[in-house]
C-alpha cells in the first residue's frame, strides 16, 4: 500500500509536468495509459496480496505441523525411556527371583546333604558298634555274624538245639533310611520279632536285642 501511495504521488507529479509539455490529445492518451496501468497494478497487487496471505497460512500450517512432529517425537522418546526402564526393572526383578531361587535350592541342598551326612554317620556308628560286638557275641552266645548284600548283617546262632547243636537259627538286620534297626528276615520265624525291633529302637540297647532273640530261638527249640 505504501508503494501504491508513492506511485500515485509520482504519477501526479508526472502529470503536472506532462500537462505543461504536451497537448490535450496526448494528455488523454496518457490518462488512459495511466488508468490502465493503475488498474493492472491494482489487479497485480490484489493477486500478490492473496498469494502472500496464502503463503502466510502455509507457513503457519508448516509451523503447526513442525510443532506436532516435535511433540510426537518428544512423546515417543518419553515412551521409549519408560519402556527401557520397565524392561530394566523386569530384568532386575527376574534376575533377583532367579538368584533367590538358586539360593533357596542351595540352602535346601545343604540341608539335605547335612541330613544325609548325619544319617550316614549314624549308620556307620551303629555298624561299627555291631562289628565291635561281634567277638563278644561269638564267644558268649555261640553267634556268627556275616556281612551280606546291601550292607546287611546276618546273625547265625548255633548251640541252641541240644539235639542238633550245629542247627542254625538266623535273622538278618539292616538300618533303614530313618537310621533305625530293621529285621528283614528271620529263620525260623518269631512272633515276637516286631516287639523286639520296636524296643531296640526305643532303648538303642543292641546287645539286649540280640540276647532276647537268642532266648526266643531257645524257647522255640524246646517246643
UniProtKB/TrEMBL annotation:
Keywords: Cell cycle, Cell division, Centromere, Chromosome, Coiled coil, Kinetochore, Mitosis, Nucleus. Residues 148-217 form the Chromosome segregation protein Spc25 C-terminal domain. It comes from the Eukaryota. GO terms for cellular component: Ndc80 complex; nucleus. Pfam families: Spindle_Spc25. Gene3D superfamilies: Chromosome segregation protein Spc25. Its main location: nucleus. It is found in: Chromosome, Centromere; Nucleus; Chromosome, Centromere, Kinetochore. The keyword Cell inner membrane does not apply. InterPro entries: Spc25, Spc25_C. Residues 62-122 form a coiled coil. One of its GO terms (biological process) is chromosome segregation. PANTHER family: KINETOCHORE PROTEIN SPC25, KINETOCHORE PROTEIN SPC25-RELATED. Belongs to the SPC25 family. Acts as a component of the essential kinetochore-associated NDC80 complex, which is required for chromosome segregation and spindle checkpoint activity. Required for kinetochore integrity and the organization of stable microtubule binding sites in the outer plate of the kinetochore. The NDC80 complex synergistically enhances the affinity of the SKA1 complex for microtubules and may allow the NDC80 complex to track depolymerizing microtubules. Component of the NDC80 complex, which is composed of ndc80, cdca1, spbc24 and spbc25. The NDC80 complex interacts with mis12 and zwint. This is Kinetochore protein SPC25. The gene is Spc25.
